[in-house]
Design brief:
The protein has 140 residues and is mostly helical. 51% of the residues lie in helices and 4% in strands. It contains 6 helices and 2 strands; from the N terminus they run H-H-H-H-E-E-H-H. Strands 1-2 form a two-stranded antiparallel sheet. The N and C termini lie far apart (76 Å). About 4% of the residues have low confidence.
Length: 140
Amino acid sequence: MTNKTKILLGVSVLVIGTGIFFLTKKNKNGQSVLGGGTKYIDEGDVNMIPVFSASQKATTLYNAMNIYTGTDEQTIIEELTGVSQAQFGLISKAFGLRNYNRYLGYNTIGGTPLPLKTWLREELNDADYHLLRKKFPMYL
């Protein structure tokens, strides 16, 4: 073996050894120092996956439909994008029965308590409602 080969082999072993050391070394959160671990909500990372809140989504949907200037269809679609069948059931349950006036199209005096299904049917156009109906057939 030449000196050049010995040096190259030595540097390679050193780099690989250092990499293995840092991959196996853990920080205070129990993750590899070099990362590569799964991100958990309790890590305080700004890029974490948001926690699903059925009551928050129900309130947002209600606010999008209960405005004097008309329904904010875009907000409704955005809020329900990525929502599973089971999550929609939780949102519907959290929405409960809310007062709805069919003549004016939002919550006013003289309305009737109606579920989310009916609110969506009354407030959305046929195309948007059928899109949601295909996604959540168990609830719409």
